[in-house]
Write a structure and sequence with these properties.
Layout (H helix, E strand, L loop, with lengths): L9 E5 L4 H12 L3 E6 L3 H5 L9 E5 L5 H15 L4 E4 L15 H27 L4 E6 L12 H21 L4 E8 L2 E2 L4 H4 L4 H9 L6 E2 H12 L10 E4 L7
Parallel strand pairs: 1-2, 1-4, 2-3, 4-5, 5-6, 6-9, 7-8
The structure holds nicotinamide-adenine-dinucleotide.
GO biological process, one term: bile acid metabolic process
InterPro entries: NAD(P)-bd_dom_sf, SDR_fam
Keywords: Oxidoreductase
Length: 252
């Protein structure tokens, strides 16, 4: 897939070490964009050839839910590449599908802090650099759990609903300043986040595939391809909305 308009663009991606964030980074590097990654884990970064000695790629190890670390990452990205054109808030964590009575306060806080506060902190650190140039695109990572029950536990589902609301308000408040914000709601994507489903005889993974109208899990690359489109100038009239990529799950 080739898109015009990403050459010389700078993309800031959180959750870049694994799964969907890693696939997004590779997809944008393939379009000749510059990518600045942020993640708490380093492992996946070195595992991918596209990242090694690539002058278009730099990263910062840090926690998106900690304000000082986010500000440091954004400062490094600006020093390295001079601007940020596209922000992908992809980092997120799952809650083990715990119902509310099995969700203690620390689990609730962890999920909300990483998924919701992290998205807000990174956005607030990057947005001023976009507003000053009256140009920028934000793509937040929601989930089918942002629309319906069953895609996570109490905290995860609440956090993804919050991300959807935040994304709509972000676009609404900043569209006049040249910012375009949307979200993506993936269904079953085969990444390390879901490795428990594939463990043992993979019974859970098979059940999920059977319950998905398309009859299969998707690859992270498929979410990255949608991200390319949403971030491209071709999607300029798509605002404040959440695009599902779920094999038909929400349409059931
Ligand atoms: P993943 O676990 O493979 O990758 C998530 C990455 O985020 C990891 O590299 C992790 O280190 C990083 N991360 C976690 N907390 C962080 C923090 N506080 N600061 C910095 N980095 C942090 O998961 P994935 O499947 O690629 O998920 C990516 C996003 O997509 C998440 O927001 C997830 O909720 C969402 N999502 C995934 C699926 C799916 O089926 N895989 C479905 C719907 C939504």
């Amino acid at each position: 897939m080739e898109f015009k308009g990403f050459k010389e663009k700078v993309v800031f991606i959180t959750g870049v070490s694994s799964g969907i964030g890693q696939a997004q980074a590779i997809a944008f590097l393939e379009q000749n964009a510059y990518v600045f990654g942020m993640d708490i884990a380093e492992k996946g970064i070195f595992a991918v050839a596209e990242f090694q000695n690539n002058p278009h790629f730099a990263y910062f190890l840090g926690d998106t839910s900690k304000k000082e670390e986010v500000e440091e990452a954004v400062k490094k990205a600006m020093q390295q590449f001079g601007q940020i054109d596209i922000l992908l808030n992809t980092a997120g964590i799952l809650d083990g599908y715990a119902p509310t009575l099995e969700t203690d306060e620390s689990l609730w806080d962890r999920i909300m802090t990483v998924n919701v506060k992290g998205t807000y902190l990174v956005t607030n650190a990057v947005l001023p650099h976009m507003v000053v140039r009256k140009s920028g695109v934000v793509v937040n990572m929601a989930s089918i759990a942002g629309f319906v029950a069953g895609g996570g536990g109490a905290a995860y589902t609440a956090s993804k609903h919050a991300i959807i609301g935040y994304t709509k308000q972000l676009d609404y408040d900043y569209v006049k300043l040249g910012i375009r914000a949307n979200g993506i709601a993936p269904g079953a994507i085969e990444t390390p986040m879901n490795q428990a489903d594939f463990a043992g005889d993979g019974k859970m993974a098979k059940w999920v595939a059977k319950e998905t109208p398309a009859g299969r899990w998707a690859k992270a690359q498929e979410v990255a391809n949608l991200t390319l489109y949403l971030a491209s100038p071709e999607a300029d009239y798509i605002h404040g909305t959440i695009i599902p990529i779920d094999g038909g799950w929400l349409g059931k």
